[in-house]
């Protein structure tokens, strides 16, 4: 007997086991897995190497670069935080990034909800403007932004003689949030538009207001999209160098600008341990933030459901 069956039209069907299940290793899947493993190793190996190198003493760098450190030299991290002022720059980056993410969500969430669920005059023009903002590279307009802020400081010179808009972490966070709004609104708008109207109609029958529907139903259901936008915005804010270097002209620098100064100083002094310690300090918040939001990225959009 065979496991093959015939239909009335003579077509032969094989069982799933004979055809090859989702767990079978085909040539294409094998090649894909090899490419993924190689790609992961190209990221994992340098990160681990930098981590171990951050604990090496200055004399250990004259030998083989692949040798493990003789001990855990925490002095590299102490020097990076204290002498290179990375601790101060780290605090500035945390403040700016957190404030920018809060501002972006406060503006983008209601804006994207209204654009996805309501019709109003000028909606199409606003959507085109938001989509057009996706194609604007912020690094190309950082100089006009800087000149605008300088002119604004000139107008307020009598009140703020030391300046208010330039070299201000709050204004840097505002610029970050404003430049990330097109992407955030575009992402959340598409997600809100994909949610069935049954959720909204059921809430209206129960007497819920539009504000309650937005905050109690749609926002929790949109947590995967919100987490994704937060992750992309966090990486954009935290890793920015050009905007912060242009707008923060004083000692209130972000950690990326401080890391570049540390690189230039330690290369001349050939103290690479302190340099790699600074790199680890920059990488750790990104890994922690991704570990926090990665579970939300995998959640489905049907949280709550219909009764």
UniProtKB/TrEMBL annotation:
Entry coiled-coil feature ranges: none
Primary residence: membrane
Record domain ABC transmembrane type-1: where: 90-293
Single Gene Ontology BP annotation: transmembrane transport
Keyword tags: Cell membrane, Membrane, Transmembrane, Transmembrane helix, Transport
PROSITE patterns (alphabetical): ABC_TM1
Source organism, top-level taxon: Bacteria
Localisation per UniProt entry: Cell membrane
Topology of this chain in the membrane: Multi-pass membrane protein
Membrane-crossing residue ranges in chain numbering: 34-55, 94-116, 128-150, 170-188, 217-238, 275-293
Cellular-component GO terms for this entry: plasma membrane
Pfam family, one: BPD_transp_1
Family: Belongs to the binding-protein-dependent transport system permease family.
Protein name: ABC transporter
Species of origin: Bifidobacterium leontopitheci
